[in-house]
Amino acid sequence: MAIGTQQDSDEMMSEINMIPFIDVMLVLLIIFIITVPVIKHSVNIELPQASMEKVLDKPQNIRLAVDAEGSYFWNDQRVDDAELASRLRAAAAQDPQPELHIRGDKAVRYERVAQVMAAAQRTGVRKIGFITEPVSP
Description:
Elements: H1 19-40, E1 62-66, E2 72-74, E3 77-79, H2 81-93, E4 100-104, H3 110-123, E5 128-130
Parallel strand pairs: 1-4, 4-5
Antiparallel strand pairs: 1-2, 2-3
């Protein structure tokens, strides 16, 4: 009986064909050789240093309340219509500009709130918010 030849065609081959395994291993080796330098490559950069100090660049919000009689209150201080316009102009000139939070009484006429919004728009105030109370269940 000779090695590597098959005398009887009914005999099963009992050897494992190693050629496909070697091909797969060589392909994997080539892939790893190519990808390892790419994985270890890094870019040297200098990151900026940060401090733990709190930055206070945001101005305080303006609370403008309108009571049931239509009177204006600038941060809990009563103001008349002429003084309100001058304060709105001064607030619009600040950089960064503060937000105007309007809190209107539910009994006040809408006209008084609309007048304040129009005055804020004329003076250049860009950020206006409304304060409301949530509905209790």
